[in-house]
Specification:
mainly alpha; Growth Hormone, Chain: A; 20 helices; globular
């Protein structure tokens, strides 16, 4: 018996030690994910020079739109088959290491091609190479998000992602400006400039590979094991479950919003570099301002999302984002465009954070990878549709100020506004309840647990606060008065008798008659002193006048001895 007890104690100690080690590994990985986000931001800054690199080898605005369309379309199709591939190579460390290595090699391939063959091939071949280059990065981002979200505590999700996005935006801003200066200095030979851009991306992806290799493998984060995954959960199951869980409006909103954004997304570089004839440095400053605003805004949006919900933030920013492309029509001075991009960054920081946070919170743990991947695929497909519309609009759309690009900016802004006006008020935040993380919130939650105990008591005024203490010490005996029966709800407090009657008629119930002694103050509930005076004699009213009500606590504070009757 003693040996069995010792073995049981030993197994419990081992389980506790294993749990503590797993928690330490998770905290260490979350800290390293911030470093991974910084390196990913440098890679993203280099990837955002996709359109300028195509312009440098001779592509026009229509070629840029077509290439962006093809890249997004093929990536969306690849994402449909990617979950099974990611589950095979690994959901945590092993998969991240392999995908980061593939990602690094893809940038090496693009670097070699642009350095030696950029002047001998068409822009479409170069676009195919960009597709090969971006595919491993997209798969890695989904695999990383699935792993990372399983380690973040739910009540700190918004703040962690806000901090991570702020770090990414800071590094993105610094690297984007640095790469813009490199291109501006090497304007006479764009091949050298873009080769330096791609070599910077190679260093960033190699750093990510090293960082993933040093992370600890958390195999069973949040109780989800590889054998618990849902390999048979396909696209049809995803859409069916989205409808059942009433998330179809959210998915429709993000997809349609992405489509309207992609109408003009690739054309910003064309408009700034080809039509306005700005330098690479000024182009960098204008676009980098957006990320500087994200740095400032994302921690704020993260706290707001944790407290009030993600849909609350989306409701705010979706009212401003539609005006961003429209504002480009009025003036094209560099200072004005920088100001517009700052406002854009403030709003897009909240949008990107809350759409990601909302999906992380609502996706079931065993299906989170496929939720993220299918949502990514749907977003890329919507962006591809937007690219198709953009290509057709460039052929025959009206011009504003001699520019067809400005007309597309106007159409994009109007469509964004229509989608936000129709869909955002219909969104429901099913992950709105934040977990308590402060002493004040914990105290409020404890109070909410205690309040139902009052619902079984007798009420003079249903739903009002109690005024305990002091009544029994008075020298007079108030005359008992029988009050009318006051019903008490088992599921809530009804403030009006009519509401209680309606409730009973709907539920086909009959209220049990109940009488109480009105002048007894202690078991009753009063909202203000005047209400109490209705049920006590004049002497008691005179005595209670010396006991003013504390407004927030609802208790009588004695100031002098009660007056005898």
């Amino acid at each position: 018996m003693t040996s069995a007890l010792k073995s049981e104690v030993s197994s419990l100690q081992q389980a506790e030690a294993s749990s503590a080690t797993e928690a330490d590994n998770a905290r260490g990985n979350l800290a390293k994910f911030h470093g991974e986000g910084a390196a990913a931001a440098v890679e993203e800054a280099a990837a955002n020079y996709q359109s300028p690199s195509m312009i440098a080898i001779g592509a026009d605005s229509q070629n840029v739109s077509i290439l962006a369309l093809l890249v997004n379309l093929l990536l969306s199709v690849a994402c449909l088959k990617a979950p099974r591939f990611i589950e095979k190579i690994g959901l945590t460390k092993n998969g991240a290491v392999l995908l980061s290595l593939f990602n690094c090699f893809s940038w090496v391939l693009l670097f070699i091609f642009f350095l030696f063959f950029s002047h001998t091939v068409s822009p479409y071949v170069f676009g195919l190479l960009w597709l090969i280059n971006l595919a491993p990065g997209v798969l890695l981002s989904v695999q990383r998000d699935n792993w990372m979200s399983s380690l973040i505590p739910g009540n700190f999700m918004g703040r962690y992602l806000g901090k991570r996005l702020a770090i990414k935006s800071t590094l993105y801003l610094a690297s984007f400006c640095f790469l813009g200066i490199l291109l501006d200095r090497s304007i006479q030979d764009s091949t050298v400039g873009f080769s330096l851009v791609f070599s910077t991306a190679i260093l960033a992806t190699f750093f990510n590979f090293i960082l993933f290799a040093t992370m600890k493998d958390t195999r069973h984060a949040k109780g989800v094991r590889p054998e618990d995954m849902s390999p048979g959960f396909g696209v049809k199951n995803f859409f069916s479950e989205v409808r059942q869980r009433k998330l179809s409006r959210f998915v429709a909103f993000t997809s349609l919003f992405s489509m309207t954004v992609s109408l003009c997304g690739p054309l910003y570089a064309v408009f700034i570099l080809s039509e306005l004839r700005f330098s690479y440095l000024l182009f960098t400053v204008i676009l980098a301002t957006e990320y500087l605003a994200k740095i400032i805004s994302t921690p704020f949006w993260g706290r707001i999302a944790d407290r009030y919900g993600n849909i609350h933030v989306l409701n705010i920013v979706s009212k401003v984002i539609p005006f961003v492309p429209i504002c480009w029509l009025f003036w094209q001075a560099p200072g004005y465009l920088i100001f517009i991009q700052a406002i854009s960054g403030l709003c897009w920081g909240g949008y990107d954070l809350c759409t990601q946070n909302y999906l992380f919170k609502l996706a079931p743990p065993e299906k989170k990878l496929r939720y993220i991947m299918y949502s990514k695929s749907l977003t890329l497909f919507s962006m591809a549709i937007g690219g198709v519309i953009s290509v057709f609009l460039l052929k025959g759309v009206f011009s504003i100020g001699g520019s067809q690009v400005l007309s597309i900016f106007l159409i994009s802004g109007l469509l964004r506004g229509a989608i936000a006006w129709y869909l955002v008020p219909r969104l429901v935040d099913f992950a709105v309840r934040p977990e308590p993380d402060t002493e004040r919130q914990i105290a409020r939650d404890e109070l909410r647990v205690k309040i139902p105990a009052y619902r079984s008591a007798a009420y003079y005024r249903p739903g009002l606060w109690p005024h305990p203490g002091g009544v029994q010490e008075r020298s007079f005996e108030p005359e008992p008065v029988k009050a009318a029966p006051i019903p008490v709800s088992a599921t809530g407090i009804f403030r009006r008798r009519e509401a209680w009657t309606d409730y009973l008629s709907e539920m086909a119930l009959v209220p049990a008659p109940r009488t109480i002694d009105a002048p007894v103050i202690y078991p009753g509930l009063y909202h203000r002193t005047a209400a109490m005076r209705e049920y006590v004699p004049a002497a008691a009213a005179k005595s209670s006048a010396a006991r003013p009500v504390r407004r927030y606590s609802g208790q009588y504070k004695p100031q002098r001895k009660p007056v005898a009757a």
